[in-house]
Amino acid sequence: MSAEQTLAEPDTAALWAALERHLPAAVRLRHEIHSAPEVSGAEQGTRDRIAAALPAQMTRADVAGTGAVLRLGGEGPAIGIRGELDALPVTETTGVEWASAVEGVMHACGHDVHMAALVAVSHAVAEAGPPVPLLAVLQPREETYPSGAEDIMASGLLARQGCAAMVGAHLQPTLGRDVVACVPGGVNAAADEFVIEVTGSPGHAAYPHLAEDPVLATAQVVVALQTVVSRRVDPMRAAVLGVSSMEAGRAANVIPGSARVTGTLRALDSETRALLRTQLQEVAVGVAAAHGCSAEVTVTSGEPVLENDPALAVRAQRQLAGLGFELSDSLRSLGADDFSFYGAQAPSLMMFVGTGAAAGLHTSDFLPGDDDVRRVAQAMLAGYLAAAELIREG
């Protein structure tokens, strides 16, 4: 395909009509994927099943262990659309005929819907003719560390493929049906995990004055950390510093030598993220020292802030409105998604597609309807057309 053909005006009517024709097969594929889930890092079967369902003319390159990127179209800048491969270690309770046949594993986050929608969009673009080359990014390990998206970026494959924009769509049960959030700017938080090891000196519980109690010190550290967001972070900026687990000792009459807490840091901007890290260190070390103990803080960096490119978001909003979707401009959360790593290379857009479902993400009874395949596919194709418009404008 020549550069002129690559940047041709898309036949949008043909694209939308082709999408409708490929949706029934995508729904059947969704059932297959849902019944055979694979956890993070073990998604080879899912990857190969999706790759086989994509248009035959797409060229494949495996990446990130259990992932793959498949290309449709000729030379020139390309648009990536992500589909997450992994399921969760959750026991399904939906009771549908096509429920998970794998004990203790379930597609409880909608990834089965996302993958099926990506296949339908790929077939529609192949049938109508790609105005811009399409990359179907089959990403592993969205649910765990190490991040599949980060590994794909580190491989350099998307750069070599000329990826000029990335598009994603994720189901969101807090939004009503036919509602899509397509918001410019930060929409998901940067997320880090931390561990605090507090060390004292052990002793008999009957003689606390002869010991340095790490349990007491740790309790005070946890309480003091709750003031960081309320007293150190600008109240106009969103942030979370949360302690999620505490471990110390085993016997009722023994003061242990150490205690351990773990938790998460979340922020919607890099400055607040850095502030949380600094305050975590200072508070933990200082409060522990005030109680005769020492503290060692370890922070594991997670996803950066997920920033939607404003120009891409505005163009996608026009596409979505033309399809009859209600647009939500309020959905921002301190949840995290490693889709954010793609934005470091190219303009990216993550849309949230409402299901109106009562069950929440990551629960055993989360079951989006088959019609959600259509809505997610429409959002993905709207994002693809928006990105194609942006690329044509240079």
Plain-language structure description:
This protein has 10 helices and 16 strands. It has helices spanning 3-6, 12-35, 44-53, 111-128, 148-155, 157-160, 214-232, 270-290, 310-322, 371-392, and strands at residues 59-63, 67-72, 78-84, 134-139, 163-172, 179-181, 185-188, 190-199, 203-204, 239-248, 254-255, 258-267, 294-301, 306-308, 326-328, 348-354. Helix 2 (12-35) packs antiparallel against helix 4 (111-128) and helix 7 runs antiparallel to helix 8 (270-290). Strand 1 (59-63) and strand 2 (67-72) form a beta hairpin. The chain is elongated, with a radius of gyration of 24 Å. It folds into 2 domains: 3-186 and 306-392, Aminopeptidase (3-Layer(aba) Sandwich), CATH 3.40.630.10; 190-301, 2-Layer Sandwich (Alpha-Beta Plaits), CATH 3.30.70. The protein has 394 residues and is of the alpha/beta class. The strands form 4 sheets. An 8-stranded mixed β-sheet has the order 1-2-4-3-5-16-6-15. It has a 4-stranded antiparallel β-sheet with strand order 10-12-8-13, with helices on one face.
